[in-house]
């Protein structure tokens, strides 16, 4: 709530700042206020249709709102060099449309790409879970934590893994993320 207040104050001073508006949308996303995040990114794209960061960000809010077609359209317009991000969200959007064979194909493509380019464990987890492989998705999330991927800080607010939230392994991951550095977590043998 404080972050929302602070960015709202900054927007009073500089309402035309597209970057402040994008920060506002990102905070709204992490507060799970997806419709407001979409509205904010829509405003950015009205001002600058080619705003790469807004176009790249918007699918993260569109997918939880069930606007899969819009998310796919945005993802097809994003930078093709960011394969992991783009393909993982395409997998999630196609899963929302019920296109399971295509989702499995996208996940396989990501695994193949990882052999010759950097694909984060987080992105593999998103696509893997979308493909209906929760055990493997959890292993990718565990790898992402070991690799200290920054996206892991948002695991609690990420809508991508809602089906895993009741699993003990997932809850253990959340505890490990929230534990202070160097502190043992119940059920763990080593330090974080």
Spans of at least 5 consecutive residues whose pLDDT stays below 50 are: none
Question: What gyration radius follows from the Cα positions, in whole Å?
Answer: 17 Å
Q: Can you give the helix content as a percent range?
A: 55-70%
Instruction: Note the gap between the termini.
Output: 29 Å
Percent of residues in beta strands: under 5%
Number of strands: 0
Please outline the major beta sheet.
none
How many helix segments?
A: 11
What best-fitting shape do the alpha-carbon axes yield? Answer: globular
Order of helices and strands: HHHHHHHHHHH
Judged by helices, strands and strand pairing, the structural class is mainly alpha
Mean pLDDT across the residues is 90
Features:
192 residues, mainly alpha, 11 helices, globular
Secondary-structure map with pairings?
Blueprint: H1 2-13, H2 18-30, H3 34-47, H4 52-57, H5 59-62, H6 68-77, H7 83-96, H8 100-114, H9 121-130, H10 134-146, H11 168-178
Short summary of the structure?
With 192 residues, the chain is mostly helical.
Could you characterize the architecture of this molecule?
It is built from eleven helices and no strands. By secondary structure, it is mostly helical. The longest helix has 15 residues, at 100-114. The radius of gyration is 17 Å and the shape is globular.
